[in-house]
Amino acid sequence: MNKKINKTYTIAACLLTGMLMTTPGNASESNKHHSSSKHNKQRVNFGPGDHYKHRMAVNPSDYKKVADISHSAADLPKPLNRSRAEKVVINLNASEVISDIAAGISYHYWTFNNTVPGPFLRVREGDTVELNLHNEANSSHDHAIDLHAVTGPGGGLAVTKVEPGETKTLSFKAKTAGLYVYHCANGNAATHIANGMYGLILVEPKQGLAKVDHEFYVMQGELYTHGKLGKKGFQAFDSKKMLDERPEYIIFNGRTGALVGDGELKAKVGDKIRLFIGNAGVSKISSFHIIGEIFDRVYPEASLSSPLRNVQTTLVPAGGASIVEFQVDYPGDYVLVDHALTRVDRGAWGILKVTGKKNKALYAGEASSHKEHND
Ligand SMILES: [Cu+2]
Question: Ligand 1: distance of its center to the CA of 184 in Å?
Answer without folding.
Answer: 5
